Amino acid sequence: MARGLELDERLARIAAGVEACRGIEGELWRAGSAELEQVMGAVDSLVVAGEAARAVVTAEAISRGETGSGAAALTPVQWVRRHAPSTRSGGSAQIVAVAKVFSVPGREAVKDAVLSGVLPVRSAAVVVSEADRLLPLLVEEARPTVLEGLVRIAAEE
User: What secondary structure does DSSP assign to 55-117, as a single string?
Assistant: First the structure.
């Protein structure tokens, strides 16, 4: 549905999603059990999509050199913390680890799972960590299958 949207329209829709979430506690009394479950599922999907978007934005910033340029150069983790303040108490390193994998050949299964919403960023970061330790020990032909298996296991947990 949202594939053809331009950046300004995406920003407006993101702002609308933020607005819809803020103050939701004042409306939940109206929800029956089914609606409450529906709201929880929708909010969870929004969070997973937001996490994936943070990883994509971070990957773009890294590829452009935005994170380490200028007089006030930052590491990628510092850049994420500065521009995504909710990560200051944790999570920025996971976002960076996943974002870096987006451009690594042979790791497309991780990127695809994150961008499709199948794998949250925190789970993808675990997959990346395990893959970094495991894949170098395997023959080249087995690596894609093992990576896909790690993604599948993480998605089911």
Answer: HHHHHHHHHHTGGG-STT---HHHHHHHH-GGGTTTTHHHHHHHHHHTTSTT-HHHHHHHHTT
